[in-house]
Design brief:
Elements lengths: L1 H43 L2 H19 L3 H15 L8 H24 L2 H5 L6 H33 L6 H19 L3 H18 L31 H6 L7 E3 L5 E3 L7 E6 L5 H10 L1 H8 L5 E7 L6 H10 L6 E3 L4 H6 L3 E2 L2 E4 L5 E5 L18 H10 L14 E2 L5
Parallel strand pairs: 3-4, 4-5
Antiparallel strand pairs: 1-2, 3-7, 6-9, 7-8
Helix pairs in contact: 1-4, 4-6, 7-8
């Protein structure tokens, strides 16, 4: 480790000295690439096309010469607006300050790595229980210090790199994504959800690592569609093994049609809890297009399975929920959790977020409804409905395979 620390300081110094020249080379490289593209197009033109091109160039020059100074400045402003402003670089003093901050964090990182050397862990078996507890505590502190130092180094390096200007196509896509999401929240529009799906599928690869100050970002309450991987089987006796069968928090809620529902009244039955928000495009897909929830509830209705929708959206209204229930002819109630008490007790993160409670009153599944957000399955992956598989296992006496997956959808709008 030591032989890497000191050369790092030299590398950072060279980086600062070369920074200004790098920015100029970047601009020069862009111009050279533009001229190269023009030359290639010129060579592919016929003589008639070349003459037409010359005529357009002459016409453009004449048009520019006939403009007033005010009109020329307006034209330049329009071009700058269309292409976007160039990346802003921090000054020399700020660069040196960032380098010093990196050096300080590198020293902390080195100390953290040395304090958690492999030979220290190998001595655990020779220590008393009290000494082991102290060493574990020190190791955890060193790990946190290492992670903090790495994050701080990343932040300072980002300052040195400066903002990366996204392409016009990326800016248009990001802006349209936000507009479409706003429409999806306000309208119950299937086409809006489809447009959102297409943009979300193309946005991550194009904009990864390009987050800039002032750049329009997709709303944080939408999680991008991603592959939901079944959880790795836990080791016997591990913390996650205990979590698989954690007792379901008890609750009593009123439904939006005025009935009182308690979890305790379903003891001995399998209960499915679906976190619900009819404003969310992901929920709309399952109700308007796929029919996922209503079909599953009907499929297991006569197999000792109870389905309950829970709405923890703080701004929702009873009338709106009653209208949605009537529109989709729901055979199960929508429970009023606008206080967010039950949602927070279960740790519900998204809509939809699914929990399956076994007949013994323990949570046997926690996660996504399936692996196909908005009906889109990752390439090379077969569609899978995790809740359907869990219920099939429970109703036939088999073991539940996948106990946890990563939920997707819109974030639960808890009260602040």
């Amino acid at each position: 480790m030591k032989r890497h620390i000191f050369p790092m300081g030299i590398v950072l110094t060279v980086l600062v000295v070369a920074w200004s020249a790098a920015g100029q080379q970047e601009q020069g490289g862009a111009r050279r690439e533009q001229f190269q593209n023009i030359r290639e197009r010129w060579e592919d033109m016929s003589e008639e096309e070349r003459e037409e091109f010359r005529a357009r160039m002459r016409q453009g020059r004449e048009s520019w010469e006939n403009l007033s100074p005010e009109e020329r400045e307006k034209r330049r402003a329009e071009v700058r607006e269309r292409l976007g402003s160039g990346p802003a670089r921090i000054g020399r003093q700020e660069q040196l300050k960032a380098v010093k901050a990196i050096e300080a964090q590198v020293a902390k990182l080195k100390a953290a790595l040395e304090s958690s050397a492999p030979e220290a862990r190998s001595r655990l078996r020779d220590l008393s229980e009290e000494e082991r507890a102290k060493m574990r505590k020190d190791m955890i502190a060193a790990m946190r210090q290492r992670q903090t130092a790495i994050r701080a180094i990343d932040e300072e390096l980002a300052k040195l790199r400066g903002p990366v200007r996204p392409s016009p196509e990326s800016r248009m896509r990001i802006g349209e994504l936000k507009q479409i999401y706003d429409l999806a929240v306000k309208e119950n529009a299937t086409e809006t959800a489809r447009r959102l799906e297409r943009l979300m599928a193309g946005y991550p690869d194009e904009s990864r690592g390009r987050s800039q100050p002032g750049e329009t970002r997709p709303r944080r309450d939408v999680q991008r569609p991603q592959r939901d991987r079944p959880a790795r089987p836990p080791r016997p006796g591990s913390a996650r093994d205990a979590e698989r069968g954690r007792p379901a928090p008890a609750f009593t809620l009123k439904s939006f049609d005025g009935k009182t529902v308690s979890l305790s009244e379903f003891r001995g039955k399998t209960v499915v809890l679906e976190w619900f928000n009819f404003e969310c495009p992901f929920v709309q897909h399952h109700y308007k297009e796929a029919g996922t929830m209503t079909d599953l509830a009907a499929k297991y209705k006569d197999k000792n399975v109870v389905w309950l929708a829970v709405n923890s959206t703080s701004h929702t209204t009873p009338q709106a929920n009653r209208e949605v229930a009537a529109q989709h002819k729901l055979a199960y109630p929508i429970l009023d959790d606008r206080s967010g008490t039950v949602g927070r007790a279960y740790g519900a993160k998204t809509t939809p977020h699914m929990f399956v409670i076994g007949p013994e009153g323990k949570i046997v599944y926690d996660g996504a409804i399936d692996n196909s957000p908005l009906g889109r399955t990752a390439p090379g992956q077969e569609p899978a409905n995790y809740v359907d598989k869990t219920l099939a296992a429970l109703t036939t006496g088999r073991d539940v395979g996948t106990a946890t997956t990563k939920p997707y959808g819109c974030s639960v709008k808890y009260p602040k």
